Amino acid sequence: MPATIRRATEADHPRITEIRNSVTENVLRDPSRVTVEMYKWFEQNPGVWVWEENGRILGFSAADTRDGTIWALFIDPTQEGRGIGQALFAKACHVLREAGHTTGALTTQPGSRADRFYQRAGWKAVGTSERGERIFHGEL
């Protein structure tokens, strides 16, 4: 069965949570920053998008069409380096473009693989958040 990117359903939430909690960088230390209500908004509005392969979700992304930010991009750590992140990043950027945004923003842990990923994608570090995360802006 080939890999596909599809919109997440409610039934996908446990696997998405499993992936989010399995990462070794950009670890969610404060669970109040990602509530079920927040997730539900993304699922029901612009969508949470998953990479599914052989019936298993290997990564997901979500973009916030209200403010032009990428809210989430996470890959199962055992599947990193396969291009899944690039495809899901492109999907998140597409969702923002379709909503009328020309630039996007996101934050990530300085020095992480994600930090280098966004730099390679041409996004520019423009500052540091209150939580010490690097702020990126990029053309969509």
Notes on the structure:
Helices cover 30% and strands 31% of the residues. The chain has 140 residues and is an alpha+beta fold. It has a single domain, classed as 3-Layer(aba) Sandwich (Aminopeptidase). Strand 6 (124-128) and strand 7 (134-139) form a beta hairpin. The N and C termini lie far apart (30 Å). The mean pLDDT is 94.
Q: What is the CA-CA span between the terminal residues?
A: 30 Å
Helicity level = 25-40%
Strand order of the largest sheet: 1-2-3-4
| CATH class call | Alpha Beta
CATH topology: Aminopeptidase
Give the mean pLDDT. 94
Question: Brief description of this entry?
Answer:
The chain has a single domain, classed as Aminopeptidase, CATH 3.40.630.30. It is 30% helix and 31% strand.
Features:
single chain; 140 residues; alpha+beta; Aminopeptidase; 4-stranded antiparallel sheet; 3-stranded antiparallel sheet
How would the blueprint of this fold be written?
Blueprint: E1 4-7, H1 13-22, H2 36-44, E2 48-53, E3 56-64, E4 69-75, H3 84-98, E5 103-108, H4 113-120, E6 124-128, E7 134-139
Antiparallel strand pairs: 1-2, 2-3, 3-4, 5-7, 6-7
